[in-house]
Amino acid sequence: RCPYRVGNRLSLFVAPRIGGPYEPIRCEITRVFQPFFRACEMAVCLVPPSPRLPGPLTLKLFDRRFAYGFRQRYSLPYWTQDIEIQYREFLQSADRPDFDRTHDYFHVPSEATRQEWTVGQHETFFHRVMSNNFCVEDEAYKRLGNMQGRHVPIKWGVVTMELEPLGTPGLSNARCGGFLLQHIQGFPLERLGDYIRPNLWEGICRDAYDIVHNLYTRGIINFECRPEYLRVRPDDDGATPKVFMVDFSTCSFRRSGMSDNEWRRRKADVNEEGAIGSVMELLLQGGYQYRPSQMYLTLAAEFPLPNGI
């Protein structure tokens, strides 16, 4: 049974943002953000409260067991205890080192290849994929240091959680990683038309594009740059609501040695701004027209799509 339910308490280990060793904490779930896709996200409060981790908080765990959207995308069955037993048996098997050596955990093999895998191999592979997603998001938050609290949530700490013991002798324990983040009260950008009057739509969408422009200067491309992963926080004082980007688990980064031309070409190919703007124009049904920024007009002129597509 999924442990991520309102009222449940979780035991975690957290390494605060300022560094230092992992420390045990307990938190209580106050809200669950379903459906879970790649990560399980929920609002939590610490029990007891801690001045070093001020609330409200979002707990984001990369737990393959209950990442239902992710499992569905790759035709994995709903998690069961029998699946977990087979996974942990494979972790301890003699076949595991060879499986690790022969697979690239950054690219999912074809369905035909995966049909030959055992249950334990499937769970091992996707645990590693989600661990990579966790590492990618951690790298993104490091690059976004001075944007935290302004355009992205504050990352208060990295967490690990021990998964429940199975009660089967001889099987090793398992864990998953995640983050304690600043909780952004609000709604997804894709629901803008339901909550905000039309005269503010242009400014709010431009705020979202500004985040994309800041990713450019910090050497980040976010492949999941969609309105559902942007959160709008209304302002209590009546000012224009603020936009936050809340998912960075599928980013790529500009590495040392990459030329400016190659980096700009990659940015043009992905076009995060257009991915947001074109969807918002469709969702707002004629009440908003996306106009590319000068930055993306320049990129489009430098790197036109083949055949004008």
TrEMBL record:
Name of the featured protein:
Protein kinase domain-containing protein
